[in-house]
Amino acid sequence: MKNIYLIALLSVLIYSCSSDDSAPNIETLTQLPTIESVSTTTATAGDIITITGKNFDPNKTYVVKFNEVEGTVTELAPTFLKAQVPDEATSGDITLTVDGQTTVVGSIEINTTDIFVFHSSAKKLAKIDVTTANFTYIGENIDYGTNTRGAVIHSTNNEYIGFENDFTQPYIVRINLETGTTTNVSIPTSFLTVGTDFDDTAVDKDDNVYIFHNSAKKLAKIDVVTGNLTYLGENIDYGANTRGAIIHKQNNEYIGFENDFTQPYLVRINLENGNVTNVSIPTSFLADGIDFSDITVDENDNIYIFHDSVKKLAKIDVVTGNLTYIGENIDYGRNSLGAVIHAQNNEYFGFEDNFGEPYTARINLDTGAVINTPIPNSFLTVGKDFDDIAIKR
């Protein structure tokens, strides 16, 4: 009887457990994917990252968040998932959620895009708010801005580096972007025996800084600590009336734009051997004038310049010199101080001094739509002289 009683009691207990809604049903639990890798640890808003692994289920909904900000899943397969980094993303964990279960799959550092201009009148570096054109100042009483030759951002040192020709003793100005601490580094006189004329600073992906030494007719790589120059090329025809220079990563070239008064052209200088290729802008694009301003390059090596004479932005083919125009009747270029590509907004971003009424010009690279934003008067009480826009990516 005792055995019968125990069997009956055990049956009741088993039945009770199996009918309890709170009890887990192993077969209905979602199997989280096994994560093998994340394609990158750094990204910019709009980038696509790939999470690789096993057991992704194309029939399920996955949510990917970047430090708690949800991205967009763009592709899903059994062995990977792709997601786009949202505009509001900040650095932190990447999480993956499916059927209410969340796991951390990695971490990411979100690259921000900061744009700077030197406010000569204030003797301060200014970070520009892209939307409002408000300034955040960096540093005090900085000796820079008399006769400059462009500026770049040196990511490794976290510095804005400008080149001051200064007529007799050229030097680079290094401004720390956090502290405003400034270091001036003179170009040694041993490099100046042939003359002190320079043009068009540019920086490559490895933070090497270049400038064209007009007097020597050579490109020079600058040692940012000593100011020493390492020359590339010989007898290069460039520097009479330039419009800036960029580094073309794919071709490993310093590319400058020479307006040349009658026949504008690109100057392509190979950074390994100093070989030079000049590419003229075809005359078919010059019927309405030859005034250009502010060459710049995007992250995919597309090169842009503003064609003042036709009031249009132009993308340049580096092989043929042909121009593909963007926009119409754009108010920019009269007295501009450089331009950069703002990747997150997909815009050409220029700074127009406008002879005392400075503003930023934002040109959408797809539509040509333009937004001009005046610099607020509250920042102009000490003066309206500016120099050398630069971008930190």
UniProtKB/TrEMBL annotation:
Annotated SUPFAM superfamilies: Calcium-dependent phosphotriesterase, E set domains
UniProtKB keywords: Signal
PROSITE patterns for the chain: PROKAR_LIPOPROTEIN
Domain of life of the source: Bacteria
Signal peptide annotation: 1-23
Ranges of residues in domain IPT/TIG: 33-101
Keyword presence, Signal: yes
InterPro entries for this protein: Glyco_hydro_b, Ig-like_fold, Ig_E-set, IPT_dom
Protein name as catalogued: IPT/TIG domain-containing protein
Lineage, highest ranks first: Bacteria, Pseudomonadati, Bacteroidota, Flavobacteriia, Flavobacteriales
